[in-house]
Hints:
Layout (H helix, E strand, L loop, with lengths): L1 H27 L2 H23 L10 H27 L5 H32 L6 H7 L4 H6 L5 H31 L8 H31 L1
Helix pairs in contact: 1-4, 1-7, 2-4, 3-7, 7-8
Amino acid sequence: LGLKKGIKRLSEVNMGIALILMIFVFFCGPTIYLLNSFLQNIGMYTSQLIELSFWTEAYVRSNWQKSWTIFYWAWWISWSPFVGMFIARISKGRTIREFIFGVLLLPSGFTFMWFTCFGNSALYFELAGQGGNIVDAVQNDLPTAIFVLLEQLPWSMITSLIATVLIVTFFVTSSDSGSLVIDIITSNGDLNSPVWHRIFWACTLGVLPISLLSLGGLKTLQTMSI
């Protein structure tokens, strides 16, 4: 359906669902604790940003730098051409102020709130001895962790269903963005390429990760992505 009719509408639905779920966790979870955590998280992030940016494990060796920092550098470098072209495509006609607010400030602020609501809620239940199997889920079957967390809150059946829909829409909007960029590249910059082009790339980007997940799981998919 294209950028405005398809991707835009689906992205708006996606963010609406995410906002509803986050607000639910905020008010039904440990609200005061989350407010305190939000401020402290921003303070810790700001105070440690420069230190961690130059941290090379020169004195203390561990696998953290290799398995997290360097891995995610490579991950995002491989993803950056798609993100850059997509942002450039949807930012046409915007002012510099709108661009900075919409691409840098608003997403960063939302990310802080999202990680605080879900991450600190899980920490709160664990510290209070009410975490159930959250730690086990994180260590043994990470994709189930959010559902284990939601079981600690009211209406877990409904919120788990909403979370499932949200995960699907997150994947679909990411796939849409990637398909659009690949389509533009392979069409020599044509912004209005034939519909079958988009369908072909969307299907290809769906079949490839399914095949990799079936053959070797998430590790294989991440390695192949880089």
